[in-house]
Amino acid sequence: MKTSKGQQINDILWWMLLIGLPIVTIGAASLPPNLRFWQGSLSHQMPSGLDPAYRYHFPETLKGALSPKQALQQEIAFYQKKIGLSPQSSLDRSSLAVAYLKMARATGAGSWYLMAEQAAERSLAELPFNNNTAVIVLARVAEARHDFTTALRLAGEANGEDAIAIKVTSNLALGKVDAANKAAEALVNRIPTLGSLTLRALVREAQGRDAQAIQDYQKALAAEEPGEVGSSAKTRTYLGRFYARRGQLTQALALYQEALRLVPRYPLALVNLAELETRQKQYGAAEDSYSQVSIYAQGAATVFDHIVDRGKARLRNLQGDAQGAKEWLDKAEALLRQQTAVGNVNGGFGHRRELARLLLERGRTEDVIEALALMKAEVKIRRDSQTLDTLAWALSKSGRWQEAQKAMAEALRWGVRDAGMFYRAGAIAKALGNRPQSEAYLKRARETDPTLDEQAQQALGLGLEFSY
Q1: Which domain range does residue 464 map to?
Q2: pTM above 0.90, yes or no
């Protein structure tokens, strides 16, 4: 039941979804419940437009293997049995905590995180020293709760690649991109795997180092190994998102399709694909992609539910169905409020920023007031570029343009290249009467993503209500 160092680093990539890296706000994201495995589902046909270097090269390893959920069920049963025979085995209990944590990623259910936390705490109570695994589990649960300060403190008490990886992800969430970069460099120098190189690519994206980010993605895929299909699909999805944000939609589409070739109905790829299809006015295809996420969950609640609901609301709105849009948006709002409520049964794994964005997108006066309050609270614990951009949006909608400009400057300070942010920065500069600066931001937006027209802005829910 032991995992390799490379696999441990690949596991940490699931946590990028937990701390809300763009595009989806993600709490725990991994393969959904009741995942059918890849046996018999792989096509040998390369998606049209796919760079040959991005194709998965190990289809023969996918035959006859257990589904991830089945494997996790066996792993949990294995450690539960061992603990039943030896209740004082703290190391087995820490391994059980890891298995619970993996199941949390597979299901998106907060109860599994709580079980992981409880098992790790008990393990540490029995063995307070030299219990690195339990400490790492607690650090990851802290990340899931957006308690990045605690996550970093615990990572500092641990050792190994997982501890370094947590320093990457938590520092990114805190907006400490220099510290995240330092950790990412140390991680890659220590173990250049699919996972560690993908993490460094994400840091380089946050710095606006596009050429180096691409190089890291390419190195990551070159370093992938058989048996890493979930991580392989995820890295391709991240790379597809990178291309989509720069208007290279054909390559983005091909990468999403390749990810789905590896893991059919993979939710992260599907929601990105649906967003791309919405941008291209392929509303029927986008509807189907969103619906596949729900079908795949087979009725179980997942962290993608609110994304699907908001995506369907945008589809209805773009097609002129105001009532249908309202119904889906209300559904997403109810879910986000439930998840964000203090004392909720999921143990604090809420989505405050996502609720604020929904309220801002809807745009009523009372919604803007609430969204600003939510973001003022959120930036006290998370200051990455996406969070600061949302704060700037709320301040803009409130007419507080000077404060919005300050928040936007902080969002862009590390060099991130994001056309939507540049457009928002331009709108703020225009409102403040600085036409040259506004036009400079507009130029940067067009250079970053020439395809981000008004249709695309609406499809992405950017809330940009201005023209030049």
Answers
A1: 370-468
A2: no
